[in-house]
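ok so i was messing around last nite and threw this chain in just to see what happens. nothing serious, just curious
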Amino acid sequence: FPTKIWEKAGELGFIGVHYPEEYSGQGLGVLENIIIADAFCAQDSSIGSAVVLASFASECLLRFGSEELKQKYLPAVAEGKMLSSGAFTEPGHGSDITSLDTTAVREGDEWVINGEKAWITNGGVADYMTVFATVDPASKHAGICAFLVEKDWQGVSVGRPIPKMGQRCSNTVGLNFKDVRVPSEN
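result:
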């Protein structure tokens, strides 16, 4: 992962340009974000992808998260101080995120997550991830929830980087969640 380039991109305001200014974004739109991505990728697609994907899955937080969580995570992502990841894909299901084996069970003021994710972009280097899990395994769609999980929480384990032919600046790994306790506000 090109850490120094990512940090510089954050300092210059190239990450999260579509975030509102109160979250250290530029208050621009998705089109401007795409133009920046295109410019980076025209020079080096691997580095461009890594910079653009530094905020991967933070969109869920931006659109649906609480104000407290937005203030906690989004400015750090936009400033190049924190990486995010999206833990959606699972072994045996590919990109069908409606087929989840990862579960979340409510226990008091916490959720307990168990499951496995595969091919997770930034999974080995991200500070936090948006994890999709089902709270109702009998319901394919209605039971899907998103949880913000920090990588260093007990029960989160990161697999070896997956070797790739290209896009090597974009770290891709498997993740395991074993009795990971997530506060209900996440």
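not much to say yet. The first strand starts at residue 84 and ends at 87.
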